[in-house]
Design a protein that fits this description.
Elements: E1 2-3, E2 14-15, H1 27-30, H2 32-38, H3 58-61, H4 76-90
Antiparallel strand pairs: 1-2
Protein backbone atom coordinates (compact mmCIF):
# COMPACT_ATOMS: atom_id res chain seq x y z
CA UNK A 1 0.00 0.00 0.00
CA UNK A 2 1.01 3.58 -0.53
CA UNK A 3 -0.10 6.59 1.47
CA UNK A 4 -0.13 10.35 1.78
CA UNK A 5 3.60 10.07 2.51
CA UNK A 6 4.00 9.07 -1.13
CA UNK A 7 1.85 12.03 -2.28
CA UNK A 8 -0.74 9.77 -3.91
CA UNK A 9 -3.63 10.55 -1.54
CA UNK A 10 -4.60 12.79 1.36
CA UNK A 11 -2.46 12.55 4.51
CA UNK A 12 -3.72 9.85 6.86
CA UNK A 13 -5.18 7.75 4.05
CA UNK A 14 -3.82 4.76 2.17
CA UNK A 15 -4.24 3.63 -1.39
CA UNK A 16 -4.44 -0.12 -1.95
CA UNK A 17 -4.41 -1.78 -5.35
CA UNK A 18 -5.91 -5.26 -5.42
CA UNK A 19 -5.23 -7.25 -8.55
CA UNK A 20 -6.06 -10.77 -9.66
CA UNK A 21 -6.75 -12.87 -12.71
CA UNK A 22 -10.49 -13.45 -13.10
CA UNK A 23 -11.40 -17.11 -12.68
CA UNK A 24 -15.18 -16.97 -12.11
CA UNK A 25 -18.23 -14.95 -13.19
CA UNK A 26 -18.00 -12.91 -9.97
CA UNK A 27 -14.64 -11.09 -9.97
CA UNK A 28 -15.53 -8.89 -7.00
CA UNK A 29 -16.22 -11.97 -4.85
CA UNK A 30 -12.82 -13.33 -5.83
CA UNK A 31 -11.23 -10.27 -4.23
CA UNK A 32 -13.29 -10.56 -1.01
CA UNK A 33 -10.40 -12.06 1.02
CA UNK A 34 -8.24 -9.07 0.06
CA UNK A 35 -11.01 -6.59 0.91
CA UNK A 36 -11.49 -8.37 4.26
CA UNK A 37 -7.77 -7.98 4.93
CA UNK A 38 -7.62 -4.23 4.26
CA UNK A 39 -10.87 -3.44 6.09
CA UNK A 40 -13.03 -0.35 5.62
CA UNK A 41 -12.68 1.58 2.37
CA UNK A 42 -13.81 5.03 1.28
CA UNK A 43 -14.10 4.21 -2.41
CA UNK A 44 -13.72 1.14 -4.57
CA UNK A 45 -13.08 1.25 -8.30
CA UNK A 46 -13.25 -2.02 -10.20
CA UNK A 47 -11.86 -2.42 -13.67
CA UNK A 48 -11.69 -5.63 -15.66
CA UNK A 49 -9.32 -5.86 -18.61
CA UNK A 50 -8.91 -8.67 -21.08
CA UNK A 51 -5.55 -10.37 -21.25
CA UNK A 52 -4.15 -10.60 -24.78
CA UNK A 53 -1.36 -12.93 -25.89
CA UNK A 54 0.70 -12.68 -29.10
CA UNK A 55 -0.17 -15.34 -31.68
CA UNK A 56 2.49 -14.73 -34.31
CA UNK A 57 5.83 -16.44 -34.99
CA UNK A 58 8.17 -13.68 -33.79
CA UNK A 59 11.37 -15.10 -35.25
CA UNK A 60 9.87 -15.79 -38.69
CA UNK A 61 8.16 -12.41 -38.94
CA UNK A 62 10.68 -10.24 -37.09
CA UNK A 63 7.75 -8.84 -35.11
CA UNK A 64 8.04 -9.14 -31.34
CA UNK A 65 4.95 -8.51 -29.24
CA UNK A 66 4.44 -8.88 -25.49
CA UNK A 67 1.18 -9.93 -23.87
CA UNK A 68 -0.98 -7.30 -22.21
CA UNK A 69 -0.39 -6.46 -18.54
CA UNK A 70 -1.49 -9.13 -16.10
CA UNK A 71 -2.28 -9.12 -12.37
CA UNK A 72 1.35 -9.06 -11.18
CA UNK A 73 2.47 -5.94 -9.38
CA UNK A 74 5.41 -3.80 -10.43
CA UNK A 75 5.12 -5.06 -14.03
CA UNK A 76 7.00 -8.26 -13.15
CA UNK A 77 5.69 -10.30 -16.08
CA UNK A 78 6.15 -7.41 -18.51
CA UNK A 79 9.76 -7.00 -17.41
CA UNK A 80 10.43 -10.72 -17.84
CA UNK A 81 8.89 -10.64 -21.33
CA UNK A 82 11.03 -7.67 -22.34
CA UNK A 83 14.19 -9.46 -21.19
CA UNK A 84 13.15 -12.59 -23.12
CA UNK A 85 12.41 -10.46 -26.18
CA UNK A 86 15.82 -8.78 -25.97
CA UNK A 87 17.52 -12.18 -25.84
CA UNK A 88 15.54 -13.40 -28.88
CA UNK A 89 16.44 -10.30 -30.89
CA UNK A 90 20.06 -9.78 -29.77
CA UNK A 91 20.95 -13.44 -29.34
CA UNK A 92 22.34 -12.83 -25.86
CA UNK A 93 21.06 -12.04 -22.39
CA UNK A 94 20.92 -8.40 -21.30
CA UNK A 95 23.61 -7.83 -18.67
CA UNK A 96 22.87 -5.22 -16.02
CA UNK A 97 26.14 -5.38 -14.09
CA UNK A 98 28.38 -3.63 -16.63
CA UNK A 99 30.88 -1.43 -14.81
CA UNK A 100 31.96 1.92 -16.34
CA UNK A 101 35.47 2.11 -17.75
CA UNK A 102 37.95 4.60 -16.30
CA UNK A 103 37.31 7.07 -19.12
CA UNK A 104 33.55 6.86 -18.46
CA UNK A 105 34.02 7.92 -14.82
CA UNK A 106 34.00 11.63 -13.93
Amino acid sequence: MVSGAHNVCKAGLYLAILSATVETNDPQAELKPAFDLIGDTLDVFISISELHEPCNDSKAEGLYVTSSYDATSHFETAGDQILEMYEQIAGEKLVFNIQPSEEDEY
